[in-house]
Amino acid sequence: MVRIGIDIGSTVTKAVVMKDENIIVHQRVPTGWSPKETGNRLMESLKSNHSFHESEIASIVTTGYGRKTLPFATRKVTEITCHAKGAFHLYPSSRTVIDIGGQDSKVIRMDDAGNVIDFMMNDKCAAGTGQFLHVMATRLEVDVSDLEKMALLDEPVQINSMCTVFAESEIIGMMAAGASKESIASGLLNSVAGRISTQAQRIGIEETVFFSGGLAINQYLQQAIQEKLNKRVKVSPMAQYTGAIGAALLG
Predict the structure, then answer these.
(1) More exposed terminus of the chain, fewer Cβ within 10 Å: N or C?
(2) What is the mean pLDDT of residues 173-198?
(3) Are residues 185 and 220 in the same domain?
(4) From what superkingdom does this record's organism come (predicted)?
């Protein structure tokens, strides 16, 4: 039997298929305008393109902001619980999870069994999230994936505002004053690292810290968070699927 976990995020929808706690399939697609349509399409893709029959599906657990949109789900679980479960599976020594999503950021503390002890979530504005970096990258006329390599090429400028609107105005002023795109990219990533680190320190940090979500592949950001926390920060190649993995395991 197989268990399926689907994490419907604001920008990307991720799915994993697990058998005996091993990931046998993983797939992701842009969420687009309709989480329901995207989830349905992804589910059909999983069933038609991979080597398991529909009768083998033991459970389908959904998580993320669009988790309530899929009627075929056997269970719907919050992303806090799923990210903790997924992080513990990927890195069993994890005691703190940092996740920077498209529209929110969260820090989760866990016990030595992977259960949630405490968490803090910023979902009131885009400050310090993936959306914040997308908006700023657009202003710099680069892809958000280019920020990491750009940041390595110059010293960071100080970006004082984390509000997306005010930070964009601040960056426009810096560009007019002659600041390089590279120094602004470095400043942006450092400001995001600073915000999530402050958020983490408010609930207390225990090692090992696991960095989940799509931005976890950004090594500059990972290193900046590690330096600000003065704690080891670990990342998995499957970091973007952390929530989906946790959902599958809870099925």
Answers:
(1) N
(2) 94
(3) yes
(4) Bacteria
Cα dihedral 202, 132, 103, 153 in deg (nearest 10): -80
Pair 58, 149 in one domain? no
- Residue type, position 175, single letter: M
Residues in the chain: 251
Q: How many domains does the chain have?
A: 2
Q: What is the pTM of this model?
A: 0.93
Residue 248's nearest CA partner among 31, 11, 2 is 2
Q: Decide: helix, strand or coil at residue 108.
A: strand
Residue 210, domain extent: 93-235
Residue 69: pLDDT above 70? yes
CA distances from 10 to 80, 103, 109, 129, 220 (A): 15, 6, 23, 11, 24
Note the helical H segments in 1-160. Answer: 35-49, 79-90, 130-140, 147-151
Distance (Å, whole) CA 174 – CA 186: 13
Rg (alpha carbons) of the chain, rounded to whole number: 18
Instruction: Quickly tell me which residue has 């059909």 as its tokens.
Output: 44
Both tokens assigned to 25: 């399939």
Among 111, 208, 207, 102, CA closest to 164 = 102
Residue 47 reports pLDDT greater than 90: no
Instruction: Output the six-digit token pair for 45.
Output: 């893709």
